[in-house]
Structures are given as structure tokens and as C-alpha cells.
Design brief:
This protein starts with a helix and ends in a 15-residue tail after the last strand. Helices cover 37% and strands 15% of the residues. It has 12 helices and 12 strands.
Length: 354
């Protein structure tokens, strides 16, 4: 529904009302409803039958259920440099979203392989009969790394990676927009000394957050590279606590912290408190990730959820469009979801001194 809302220029709530047959009940104009139905058809959306549904989504005239089934087939999910999908805090939701969208299709997961062994694996019988493939990996691969997959001759999608020189369809989340939006919210609250805790890795999620953070502060005229720490991707709770304490002791004028990852929020909060400061009264905190721990701390963290579930769904929808002979974009970018908490307050006019 997120994709349909974006394609038709309406809210996700409007999409829900239209697709569930309640457009008239909520006084949605017929023209708007028609736009939603048209976008749903273009994206290949299917609604499973439910009791009391007043208007099921019909198939496009050119495609019958038998034709759709014959065009599809098993889908391989390849997990390079992972042992499996189930334990990964980022990719397990994406895998779930893909499986949910692919209801009725066979999903064949493959994991534990290295890039060096990908070519031999691709030549094996593992992919016999597969009509599509979705590839997950930790690192940003090169075109040479991806060549064994590209040479298979079947449609495939690359998840959360955006390597140069690669023309395969990619599904990404809007890391730049997430960072830019969070910094804008802090700026509106009067914060000008905003530190960043992140990573200098080349993966698109990290690059997007670095650029969004920097560009928002440059536009406001208060970017300070001395407040940027890009080594925190290797930190645990203890390292985060110590690092934040050291940052605030070195730069007591800091009034807000933006973290690329929210899973070590407890260490981040404790590092602030170790300096005698309070969250959010003295130091506001925002982050990205949307991990459950962010909802369990006090105060609840303001964060943006990575749209991994929606990315998995989008990957399968792209395969469906390719099977139907439609053109697809090289980059599909999914926005994150803001989870507002209580970790942001207006900047103090008087800054604490160490």
C-alpha cells in the first residue's frame, strides 16, 4: 500500500479505504479512487479474498490467474556472507516481506556462501527452474562480484546496495531523507551543535545518512565536522557509553546527538548521564533503525524505522513486473517511518560547561 500511495499521490490511509471498498463511506472522490485502482493495477497488487469484502481487486484484462501463474515460478533468495536470514536484525524483516508478497510461490533460500564461491554455486543445479532471484549482502559488491548472478539470464534484484557500474534493479531505503528530516526537526527546536555517531562505510545506508546530516546542517549554516564521529559502527554498549561521555566532555556545547543506529541507545543515554546531563532536557537524541529497544528506554527514543519489510515486498513486486514484460526502475527508494518519542526537547539557551 505504501507503493500504491506513492504512485497515486495520496496517503496510505486513502489507499486502504479505497482497496477495502470504503471510498464512499469516507467521502473519497471517485477520481481519487480511480487513481488508486489504476496504480494498484500497474504495480500488480493482489488482494487475498476476505469475508465481507465489498470490492475485490480484479486482475488487469490482459492477465488471467492461469497466465500469471505460468509466468512466475520459484524465487531464489541468496544471502552472501550470511549463515542465514532469521537472525539478522535488518534483513529478516525484508525476507519476511518478500515471502508475504510472494504468497503461493516457492521460495528457495540460500546462505552461508562467500563471494569467491558464488560462481561455482551459480553453475550448480541449485537454481534449476527458478524464475527470479533476490540477493542480500553486507558489503557493497563490485560488478565482478555480481557477474555470476548477472550471467544467469534470469531476473534478479539487489537489496540495499547501490554499486557503481551496475544496472540491475536495486531496492534501497531513503537514508538521506531520513537523516535530513531528523536534523531539520532538531534545527526547528533551536539546536545548532548537533553531533553525529555513525560509520564511514561505503554502503548506501551509511553514505545517505552522512550526506543527509551534513547537507541539512550546511543549509542551516552550522555544520561542524569536529562533532562527527564515524567509528561507532564497531561499538557495543560499553564503547558507546564511553564514546558519548568523551564527546560531551570535549564538546560541552553539544545540545543534540544524531545516531546512525539505535540498537545501542542504552549506552548512548548512559554516556550522556555520566556527564551529569539529562535526556532530553540537556541533550536531545534522535536515531535511525526502529529497533524494539528504542521503544523500551526512558525516555522513548525518537527514531526512524528502516522500511525493510516494505523493501522485501517491493523486491517481489519488481520481479512480478519483469515477468509481465514491464520496464522497471533501476533504483526503488522506500521512505522510512518516523517513530516519535520523548527524546527531543528545545535547546537550552544556556549551555552546560564542564
Amino acid at each position: 500500500m505504501t507503493s500504491i500511495a506513492r504512485a497515486s499521490g495520496v496517503s496510505q490511509t486513502t489507499v486502504s479505504m479505497v482497496l477495502t471498498g470504503r471510498a464512499k463511506e469516507f467521502r473519497i472522490h471517485a477520481e481519487t479512487a480511480d487513481k488508486v485502482w489504476a496504480a494498484a493495477h500497474r504495480l500488480g497488487y493482489r488482494m487475498r479474498p476476505r469475508k465481507n469484502r465489498s470490492r475485490p481487486l480484479p486482475l488487469p484484462p490482459s492477465e488471467s490467474p492461469s497466465q500469471a501463474a505460468s509466468a512466475a515460478g520459484p524465487v531464489a533468495v541468496v544471502f552472501v556472507e550470511y549463515r542465514g536470514l532469521s537472525g539478522d536484525i535488518l534483513y529478516s524483516p525484508a525476507y519476511l516481506g518478500l515471502c508475504r508478497a510472494a504468497t503461493g510461490h516457492e521460495i528457495r533460500p540460500f546462505g552461508g556462501m562467500k563471494w569467491e564461491g558464488l560462481q561455482a554455486w551459480a553453475r550448480s543445479e541449485a537454481l534449476a527452474g527458478c524464475k527470479g532471484l533476490v540477493l542480500f549482502t553486507h558489503r557493497d559488491p563490485s560488478p565482478d562480484d555480481l557477474a555470476p548472478i548477472a550471467n544467469l539470464g534470469i531476473p534478479w534484484i539487489l537489496m540495499n546496495r547501490d554499486p557503481q557500474g551496475c544496472s540491475v534493479p536495486r531496492v534501497l531505503f531513503d537514508a538521506y531523507g531520513m537523516a535530513y528530516g531528523l536534523i531539520e526537526e532538531l534545527l526547528k527546536k533551536g539546536h545548532a551543535k548537533i553531533a553525529a555517531l555513525g560509520t564511514d562505510r561505503t554502503i548506501p545506508s551509511a553514505a545517505g545518512q552522512r550526506n543527509g546530516y551534513r547537507d541539512a546542517l550546511i543549509a542551516a549554516g552550522c555544520y561542524d565536522p569536529d562533532l562527527v564521529n564515524l567509528t561507532t559502527s564497531e561499538w557495543g554498549e560499553a564503547e558507546t557509553r564511553a564514546g558519548v561521555k568523551a564527546l560531551l566532555e570535549r564538546r560541552p556545547d553539544t545540545t543534540a546527538i544524531y545516531a546512525f543506529f539505535d540498537w545501542h541507545v542504552q549506552g548512548l543515554y548512559q554516556g550522556i548521564r555520566d556527564t551529569g546531563r539529562r535526556v532530553p532536557d540537556d541533550v536531545s537524541v534522535v536515531a535511525t533503525g526502529g529497533q524494539p529497544v528504542a521503544q523500551r528506554v526512558d525516555p522513548v527514543l525518537t527514531t526512524i524505522r528502516y522500511p525493510m519489510l516494505e523493501m522485501g515486498e517491493a523486491a517481489f513486486r519488481l520481479l512480478e513486473r519483469i515477468w509481465r514484460g514491464e520496464s522497471v526502475p533501476e533504483r526503488t527508494v522506500i521512505p522510512g517511518e518516523l517513530l516519535p518519542g520523548a527524546s527531543v526537547a528545545p535547546a537550552l539557551t544556556k549551555v552546560l560547561r564542564s
